Amino acid sequence: MEPARPDEPTRTALLRRLHGDPDAEAWNEFCTRYSELVTNYCRRTGLGADDCQELFQEVFFALFQRLPRFRYDRSRGRFRAYLWRVVHNQAMAIRRRRGRRREVGGTAWVEGQASADHPDAIWEEEWRKHHLRRAVERLRRELPSRHYEVFRLSAYERLTAAEIAQRCGTSVQMVYKLRSQAMERLRTLVRRQIEEEG
Amino acid sequence: MSTSDPLLPEGWEDDEALLAELQSALGEGILRDAVPGHRLVRELGVGGQARVFLAERLADGAVVAVKVLELRMLPNSRAARRLERELEVLQRLEHPGIVRVHEGGLTRCWRPYLVEEYLPGGALKRVLPLGAPGPCADLDGALELFARICDAVDHAHKRGVVHRDLKPSNVLLDAEGSPKVADFGIAREIAELVGAVEPVAADTVGFVGSLAYASPEATGAARDVDVRSDVFSLGVLLFELLTGIPVVPHDATLRERVLALERLDDHLPSRVHRLRRRRGLLPAAAPHRLPRELDAVVAEALALDREERYQSAAALAADVRAVVDGRPLLARRLGPMRRAVRFVRRHPTAVASLALAMVATAAFAVQEVGRARERRANYAWALDTLGVLLDQAVAGFERLVGGEAYRGELLRSALDAFETMLQTHPGDPALRLGRARCLLLLGVLHRDEGDPAAALTAYRRALDDLRTLVAVPKVARDARRALSLTLVRIGDVRKEDGDLAAAERHYREALSVDQERAAAAPEDVTALDDLFWSHHRLGHLALMQEDLEGARRAFARLEPLADRIQALDPERAANWNLFFAVQRSWAAWDRLAGRGPARERLARAEAAVRRRVETSPGLWFPRFQLASVLGALAAAEAEEGLLAEALRHAAEARRILVELEGADPSKQEVAALLLRTDLEVLRLQVLLGTEATSVTRESVLARLAEDGSLSRLSALDRVALLGAAERCALALADAGRPGLGARILAAVLEDIGDATTEGDEARLRAVLGDLERRAGLQAGGEEGGNR
């Protein structure tokens, strides 16, 4: 196992730093890492844009209060489940409050389109995406830009190997090789992340 | 390929499946059709908060730029507001030098976006400095470009908008190379700025990138910004245009920035030329010579004091064009003397370093063979400057960012200067006193840095000089004060070492020095103040030794001294320290003596604070303090069953707080204490069976109904508030009104329940459940709890 890169503390290290003495930097990083996940989850569970912002702040406020007491312990359950519980509870609380406000005659809110999926299924899916985003971000920093470009064209633009080879001025075999290397590295990164944060 | 990797999500062993999921995870597919009516063509750039895309407007095929907030910034409502603000502002500004905005809104995933005109020339940053290929290739072209930027900024100013973030990356160029000012995200309306105090901490974050271009007032504590702050940023831009470097390096810390700006203010004339020469921009890269007048223009635009700056962007533009046309300038060329005087007046910190440099020169001049009269003048001047400097070292430098390090540097240099001068004037009392003061201050610094041994060495060296200097009439008065301070400081270090006897010896000697001083000059507030603290130190030392009588004697001297100082100098801010020290001292004494219930101590405190309120009725804090002491007193009285007194005191506290809140509704601590006091008053009224509960009840309920007002309280306030709510709810329930109690407790719990530990919250919920059950039993009760 390779050592973690110094510029990206591991999840566990982050939690340890948050534990007891939450410093602003660790917190900032924590927010940056999970905001997209949380935002997407909320959007898909049917909260409106304004609610979503409110929820986000509430979630991190709650985490901020609880995390110093929360000991990271792999055997006691995954961080994934823990974070979901907090997010889910806050979402329910917001929904309750929103209901009350509307009774009082509040303004119309921008409603999100609630997905038909069950919340925990949505969470699972968003969690997978979260890992992918993180891993790709890391991959982007690790790979030489030409190699990453091959991967990007293949993953985002869904170009064929021949098209990529043409666009990057290389051979089809090379494209296959680079792509497969990038995918393998991506899997390694994901594995490591999952080991860290569930 | 293995199929049973426990750490890899299902299906991700397969390249195709993983790629498919990747595409949906990364959201680019979503973004492509996310901006209504537009097709995003490619990414133009990523900023800190937003991404800019080249896009095609579907209706007419026009090429535009679309700025989309990064998804991760979405929870940051400030970032979203920036874009909103930019849309609002830009829609009002119509000027060829300001980027045009077409529309704005939310993408399908709620990212705020803006559609602006596409400017293919990129940012001005790319074509700096003067002489580089592009619109800044020749001087006249560069200055005209700059003047046009000023025109655009002036247009915004005339429409009441201050940009606040002018810098080369926020000026874009169109296809012809004409400048367009962009990014009005943190722009403010002038009307908003008048008298407004910005939330400083919040804004520092947004400031980081542009600190190099911000005016001194924009980064100062008050964040008091106006159109002249933009003029300053334009000045920085002009400087960079001419020299190729910003006035302040982009990675400078706030402190380095302060120093750089001060240096600049001192040396600006000729700096532009020097820098260009040093950077090889002159004369090789720019075939023309820079007109001397440009220095004056840059200097006036960059004046640290905005009163001395160009008062509008239009005036700056006019002078820049005057340089091009060879017309006379508006800018006043400051003579060196006027500049120096102005500089000294405005920049005590820079004066310090300036003074140091000058003192070194003077000390050197003293050594030189020269006319005696001149040497004497140099000596007197150097001494005087160093004295001022040391006073500043005592008073001023904490306020500076990085002040501690600077203070150390300053003191060590001053010490060197005194030593140097003592070589030519051996035994000179004024110089020896100066050296001793330096040593004393250095000692204090050492101690603050956690090096008591070094502190002690410095103090002792000071002491040697001071003990003899007190006998020299010329310096006796200052030497006595320094002696007293040094003795006290030595005592402090000794006390921390645990050598209480040595500490006491030094404190006593300091005390006798202070007593002499006070006797010699009965109206000398400084001497009285020192005397106060000597007594204070001796009293606490006695407490440490459990000498109650000694402590009582010392503490008994404190209050009369504080009163005398207050009478002599009522405006002195430090007086508050004295009165708090008196109270804290007696409280510590009481604790040790184990005497007197909390009620008596609080009653004493109340009397003391009340006197302060009477002597300074206009001040906010003493009144707030009185209210909180009254509240504590009421609680103590209630505990002893003195309900009527408790209610009287709580009601008075409430009255004060209502007045304070009326004067300034934004003070959270007042609102929090008022709610708590309301709850306490209500409880006492219920316990006493008073009829007049309805007013308090309505006040409590109205406060609780204000949405979210409690969530901004500090954790400590929240816990205290929960306690008050619980006590009040229980009292109401016992008085037969469980419904009202439940309502109050529920409202508080809902807003701030998570301030408690989980155990506490569970307990409070159980109490709430019980109250609700009891309320349910009271069929048809008036307060059914259907909030």
List the helices and strands and how they pair.
The complex is a heterodimer of chains A (198) and B (787).
Chain A: H1 11-18, H2 24-44, H3 49-66, H4 79-103, H5 119-142, H6 145-155, H7 161-168, H8 172-197
Chain B: H1 15-26, H2 28-32, E1 38-46, E2 50-57, E3 63-69, H3 77-92, E4 101-106, E5 112-117, H4 139-158, E6 161-162, E7 171-173, E8 179-181, E9 188-189, H5 190-193, H6 200-207, H7 216-219, H8 227-243, H9 254-267, H10 271-278, H11 281-285, H12 293-301, H13 313-325, H14 336-346, H15 348-367, H16 372-395, H17 403-424, H18 429-448, H19 452-469, H20 476-497, H21 500-520, H22 525-544, H23 548-568, H24 575-593, H25 598-615, H26 620-639, H27 643-663, H28 668-688, H29 693-705, H30 715-734, H31 738-752, H32 758-777
Antiparallel strand pairs in B: 1-2, 2-3, 3-5, 4-5, 6-9, 7-8
Description:
The complex is a heterodimer of chains A (198) and B (787). Chain A has 198 residues and is mainly alpha-helical. Chain A has a domain at 1-108: Rna Polymerase Sigma Factor, Chain: A. Chain A contains eight helices and no strands. Chain A is elongated, with a radius of gyration of 20 Å. Chain B contains 32 helices and nine strands. Chain B is mainly alpha-helical and 787 residues long. Chain B has a five-stranded antiparallel sheet with strand order 1-2-3-5-4, covered by helices on one side. In chain B, strands 6-9 form a two-stranded antiparallel sheet. Among the domains of chain B are: 1-29, no CATH class; 33-117, Phosphorylase Kinase, domain 1 (2-Layer Sandwich), CATH 3.30.200.20; 124-325, Transferase(Phosphotransferase) domain 1 (Transferase(Phosphotransferase), domain 1); 342-426, no CATH class; 667-787. Chains A and B meet through helix 2, helix 3, helix 5 and helix 8 of A and helix 1 of B.
